[in-house]
């Protein structure tokens, strides 16, 4: 009897139309921090809402005898309101940053980024880029690129957005009090690329019932624990 019921339920699920999720979209953005005060940041969201580009006018740090000690590090936090499909998705998120740096001998620049969702702040991905050496003595452009796997591996609230926070910090350190240095972050592009759909569930399903799919959406399989049977 159990096998018959399970087979019937599987047939019903396979025959039902599947509202298959396909991507993460960026609905809106905001920012905060001493490196990106209001009025100093521009942003453009792409037509398909899969990537956003920021421009920064005042995200720069400086160190040296004539520099303000408070300017040796600056931070800017980006807040992205993301709309997920109703379910569980794996995406590849790339964050690309461009800027300019000039460093005297003995000065080191660090660009540190952390990525986390507001409802799961303990699950954080971080990266650090360190710049130093003679190649930056006369000033040089740089590119920092982060690739974060599983950027959207969460069950999103049904009918709600998730908030992705990206905390960027640029900092300068020196072992020579007379040395000078500066670093700026001029722009940032955050992009989401659909990579592989692992599994998803309809919002009105029971807690222990879900339907798993591959990225080709074939061979749907019902995995249900029938506790009452």
UniProtKB/TrEMBL annotation:
Coiled coil spans: none
UniProt KW Transport keyword: no
Domain of life: Eukaryota
Alphabetized UniProt keyword annotations: Signal
Signal peptide: 1-15
Protein name per UniProt: Secreted protein
Native source species: Microthyrium microscopicum
Pfam family, one: DUF4360
